[in-house]
Amino acid sequence: MRQIIIDTETTGLDPQQGHRIIELAALEVANRRATGRTVHFRIDPEREIDAAATEVHGMTWEDLRGKPKFREIAAEFIAFAEGAEWIIHNAPFDLAFLDCELKQAMLPCCTEIHGGVVDTLTLARDLFPGKRNSLDALCERFSVDNAQRTVHGALLDAQLLADVYLNMTRGQETLTIDMAPAPAVAFDPSGAAIDLAGARKTVGAIEPSAEELALHREYLVVLEKESKGRCLWLALEAITGLETTPELAAA
């Protein structure tokens, strides 16, 4: 799956009040690996930047005079991001600004360009309810080095978000399972139950704790959401009627 990690910096908080994008960065991820392909633009907003916004990203209009206008970089951005799933932290904010800029440039809106959107802020809130879920907080939680982030910057923030997102959504390919090879089993499309009892009688196996089972169930829920209903473990549960974490079947 091709994904694009996107971040913007702006002149203020509300595009409906005429605020504009001043920096846009996108970083490509394919099959859960950063490819090294990026686009990064600093943009002349054609207006003043709010002092509060300058405190966040450190840029003034003087820094950006003479840079390309959004309409001049829009085609390159669209060519890079088209068809991919977009990964954005606090997606409604960035998408609102992008839609306003695209509309002014008389170009298609975001929903006509992307192949879906994942809001990592929503994902983090689901995973860590009641906790701080800013990008800095998530970097600390997942041990992602953000020492260079003295001010916000679109490209650096996209790079950090890529690391955070991949940590939050570790896929099945990252799991190391130490077990003897299982004999080939024909998958029964009729939904007939498959006897997994033998698989649970691994010699020397240690029963998981309640905490480990809870973490496993939480992981499966996230994996199911991020794979859009393609988590194999949960699919196997549905077919066999057996829970991969039976003690939490009611969770």
Gist of the model:
By secondary structure, this protein is of the alpha/beta class. It is 37% helix and 14% strand.
Which structural traits does this protein have?
about 250 residues, Nucleotidyltransferase, domain 5, disordered C terminus
How is this structure best described in words?
There is one protein chain. With 251 residues, the chain is of the alpha/beta class. The protein is 37% helix and 14% strand. It contains 9 helices and 5 strands. It has a 5-stranded mixed β-sheet with strand order 3-2-1-4-5, sandwiched between helices. The longest helix has 17 residues, at 210-226. It is globular.
Topology:
Blueprint: E1 2-10, E2 21-30, E3 33-42, H1 51-57, H2 61-64, H3 70-81, E4 85-88, H4 91-104, E5 117-119, H5 120-127, H6 135-141, H7 154-168, H8 210-226, H9 232-240
Parallel strand pairs: 1-4, 4-5
Antiparallel strand pairs: 1-2, 2-3
